[in-house]
Amino acid sequence: MNEDTYNKMNQLHESGGAVATVDQLIQTLRDDKNYDRLFDALLLKKRLEMGVPVVRPTSFDNLPEDRRAEFEEHYVNAAREIGALHLEAGSIPRAWIYLRTIREPEPIVAAINALDVTQDVDEELVDIALYQGVAPAKGLEMLLCSHGTCNSITVLDQQFMQLEPRVRQECAALLAQTIYRDLTATIKYEVERKQGSAPTEETLRELITGREWLFAEDNYHIDVSHLHAVIRFCRSLDADRDEVRLATELTEYGAQLSPQYRYAGDPPFEDYYTAHHNFFNALTDTDRDAALDFFRDQLAGDAPDSDKQLTAYHLVDLLRRIDRTEDALDIAAKYLLSVEDQLEFSFAELCAETGRYDKLMEVSRAQHDPVGYAAALVEQARTP
Hints:
- There is one protein chain.
- The longest helix has 31 residues, at 165-195.
- This protein is mainly α.
- Helix content is 68%, strand content 0%.
- The protein has a domain at 1-114.
- The termini are far apart.
- The protein is built from 20 helices and no strands.
């Protein structure tokens, strides 16, 4: 603002008073698209109308208790308006300052999801979308385009379990598509170079079948740590997602790698690619009983109790997801009752989810837990 603006405010205040001065200021700021100052001016006007001090217009101090709600409502409306104006001007980060304050992220989510990630993306947008959790899947997509697969996997690995299940699936699916596409392209190139013509096969499974030479001399075609991580992420996918098929084929590729590249996981995924292949088969009802037996056999073996508890935890999760709840209850009752807090598992919740309050009563009685027994008794009586 130039000196002329301040002179006009002085003149208008003398001739028209405080209200006219503030109204003119608001219009000037709106015309100049000075939206941050406009926010302050809108609140200044409200405090002026309320007859309270205006020196700190955005402050909630010096407000009569019976009019605080009135000012709060005006504050929210002003923040919503300024957020919308910043979005209209193309400034998502500035808009986020206001809409975050009033806990209305939806317009920001929509704006971020509409972005073309093939264009240069501001780091601040990646921070808002991914690190602040506003639109994590889109943020991951932006990170993939700007920083590549390695950085994206590292970032997601740090945040994965803090994400909502739906968002986990979106992120896992995106990385599965990326890894699968890149690996398939590399394999096609290798096959064409070997046989002198482009392969006719399209899927990864088709491309590696009968071509053991691809893995000769400890050969690999993708960063195996990336492959390892993405397959783990894919355990979060629902059975009906096409990316489960991609993940299954990725395990088939991984199983043919040299042993030095087949890194072991925690139980029950020590034999990493074989275990995940069975996990995805069970999830998608592909030779399901045999796939489940792979994990049951680990429970029947002589592994340490801590290993069996981890195996049981993953098996119970899998059984819940495929509606084998009776089996899940039996395994949970046998292996998980002593490690519920450690594994963030709730047997009571599983019983409630399946309506098996009789099972909760049985276990509570055996564990000398009268409170758990009473809760199950009450809920069973409530159940139609």
